[in-house]
Amino acid sequence: MIENMEVFFMSELGNIRIADDVVKTIAAKAAADVEGVYKLAGGVVDEVSKMLGKKRPTNGVKVEVGEVECSIEVYLIIKYGYKIAEVAEEVQKAILEAVSSLSGLKVVEVNVYVQNVKMEDIEETTEEFED
Fold first, then answer.
1. What highest taxon heads this organism's lineage (predicted)?
2. Which of 70, 65, 64, 71 lies closest to 110, judged by CA?
3. How far is it, in rounded angstroms, from Cα 56 to Cα 59?
4. Residue 25 belongs to domain spanning
5. Dihedral (Cα; 21, 70, 49, 31), 10-degree rounding
6. In a domain, 36, yes or no
């Protein structure tokens, strides 16, 4: 996977460079805004960064960027009660739309990995009975 690269465009006025982290941020925001998504799920590197006090808004998103296209992987935790496949498909659509419209890149694939389900209401109910 290519990390910390830049997308390079040329215009009449000069060069335009878009860092991979920009694409990651766009994808992360698009995914987080989908109803049913609890949060993005970071991997080992993200957890180590968190322990070191480095906050990364792109936790749970990986991108591979070429000259004019990109592929994206997103790792999610879904809220309990939502249909997982439907939420994942909405995430794919939201990321495709946001990244392609804001960056100008062609998104060739968006792979969604559901890492867990967050059961807020059930956990709160269980805690009430334990007291």
1. Bacteria
2. 71
3. 6
4. 6-130
5. 90
6. yes
pLDDT in tens, 78-106: 999 999 999 999 999 999 999 999 999 99
Tokens representing residue 81 in the block: 């009660």
What the block records as the tokens of 42 is 């970071």
Domain count, the chain: 1
Structural domain contains residue 1: no
Give the pLDDT mean for 103-131.
79
Picking from 45, 86, 84, the residue whose alpha carbon sits closest to that of residue 62 is 45
CA 43, 45, 46, 48 torsion: positive or negative?
A: positive
| pLDDT tens per residue, range 22-60 | 999 999 999 999 999 999 997 655 555 555 666 555 789
- For residue 56, the SS3 value is coil
